[in-house]
Write a structure and sequence with these properties.
464 residues, alpha+beta, six-stranded antiparallel β-sheet, six-stranded mixed β-sheet, 12 helices
Length: 464
């Protein structure tokens, strides 16, 4: 067994589903070895039946190991947004609680998650995370902001860095390097603290870290060093002790998504408007198909009548990456078999944002947009948030325009730097499907919005 140089604790999981307990093999610094064999339920708590051989190099004492927790908390550090959900072990299959909505947030957007943004003080201490970090940083005086350490969309660093290790650093907005482990640990620690506070409020008692089994989701296309890196960051964040790796499950996002979809009702999967076909056919075997009507049909489970051999593709489209996997239902009890290794790439919604920024550069010129981003960072973020709200409402069936409201600072800065109005630049660009309204809106026709999505969609379709 090879130990990854990133950490001296090796952990491997075989996880056909979150409902099944993973087989864990852990070699720790002390030489302790553990194997999880099964789960049993005792009252409202679940216990893992574990045999653990603890070797202290002198006595060779064998001691039983048990995990006791009454709640499972899953944390998702996304490229653009992050959040958590939890459920109590007494009703794992029925009630999954999303975290309560965050204070502040963006107008016109559902704030069930918070932006993946971290702010550290000039001395490197934690200041804030999420909406609070983003808003505080962009409200700082420009010269003062240069002293602070601000991180945004930092998750993609784990995907792109081929030489990831304990010493890997991330650069803050001001260019100052900070340990990547420290950055991710701060993010996980913040979400852990909020989760424990909410659990304590709901239960009326003080919920401790050890009362929780923690789950951290990661993209399936990540290489092993990145997954191991996330586990090490979770240890630093205090989710569990390195000597008790069973308390922390690193779960692959497509597998989690697959389990979630299987528990959805048909009317939760249908699109807002039906496609031309009247039903969606999912091939079970070479000779049979599973027909899913595209109109809401009640509360039947998506795969309620599925049989062994049912195959389906999971396309998990996130902010930074897209994970694609193909699963087969091996048994009626829901065991999954992976038919093809996870594939995908950095084709998430950030790519759509990039295309929108390129469009703005084409209309108003690159130099102006670069200067506006540098001189008016808060207004630049506000501009992108206005697009974000419209982007989330995009649909191939939509026939009405997308109205984007640039902040007044954008209009004013263009007027002062160029000596003319925005409307003149839009008219000069010369596309009839991109106009400027008298209400101060940049109006994009559906064809334009589809063009912004097209580069990412083409890459996804090519792989599928």
């Amino acid at each position: 067994m090879n130990l990854d140089p990133l950490t001296r604790t090796y952990v491997s999981y075989s996880t056909p589903s979150l409902d099944d307990v993973p087989v864990v093999e852990a070699i720790s610094e002390s030489g302790a070895e553990a194997k999880v064999t099964k789960m049993v339920t005792v009252g409202s708590r679940e216990e893992l039946d574990v045999s653990r051989d603890v070797s202290n190099n002198t006595t060779g004492v064998t001691q039983p190991l048990q995990l006791q927790h009454f709640v499972v908390v899953a944390i998702d550090i996304g490229t653009t947004y992050s959040g958590y959900a939890f459920c109590f072990t007494r009703d794992l299959d029925s009630n999954i609680h999303m975290m309560r909505k965050w204070e502040g947030g963006d107008p016109g957007l559902n704030n069930q998650k918070t932006p993946t943004t971290l702010l550290l003080t000039p001395s490197g201490e934690f200041h804030s995370f999420g909406f609070a970090a983003r808003d505080y940083f962009h409200d700082l005086d420009l010269q003062e902001a240069k002293k602070w350490l601000y991180f945004d969309k930092f998750k993609m660093a784990l995907h792109h860095n081929q030489d990831l290790n304990r010493n890997t650093e991330l650069k803050a907005a001001n260019g100052q390097p900070v340990s990547a482990l420290t950055v991710f640990a701060h993010a996980l620690r913040h979400l852990k603290r909020y989760a424990l506070l909410e659990l304590s409020d709901q239960t009326g008692s003080n919920v401790a870290v050890e009362d929780v089994r923690w789950v951290v989701t990661v993209p399936a296309i990540w290489k092993q060093p990145a997954k191991q890196f996330m586990r090490e960051a979770a240890y630093q964040a205090g989710l569990c002790e390195p000597g008790w790796p069973e308390n922390l499950l690193i779960a692959l996002e497509p597998e989690v998504a697959s389990i979630c979809c299987r528990k959805l009702r048909l009317n939760q999967l249908v699109p807002e408007r039906p496609i031309e076909q009247t039903e969606l056919k999912i091939r079970r075997t070479s000779s049979s198909t599973l027909n899913l009507p595209l109109e809401p049909t009640g509360n039947n489970l998506v795969l309620e009548d599925s049989r062994e051999g049912t195959r389906y593709m999971v396309v998990d489209c996130g902010g930074g990456t897209v994970d694609i996997t193909v699963h087969e239902l091996s048994e009626c009890n829901g065991t999954l078999r992976e038919l093809h290794k996870a594939t995908g790439g950095p084709w998430g919604s950030m790519g759509v944002d990039y295309e929108f920024e390129r469009l703005l550069e084409d209309i108003f010129d690159t130099e102006f947009m670069d200067q506006f981003k540098l001189k008016r960072p808060a207004a630049y973020v506000e501009l992108l948030l206005s697009f974000e709200a419209r982007k989330r409402s995009a649909s191939p069936h939509r026939d009405s325009s997308f109205n984007i409201f640039p902040p007044f600072a954008f209009i004013d800065y263009y007027r002062k730097s160029k000596g003319k109005e925005i409307e003149q630049a839009v008219k000069k660009y010369g596309r009839k499907d991109i106009t400027w309204s008298t209400q101060g809106m940049l109006r994009l026709q559906p064809k334009v919005m589809m063009e912004l999505f097209r580069p990412m969609l083409d890459k996804i379709i090519q792989v599928c």
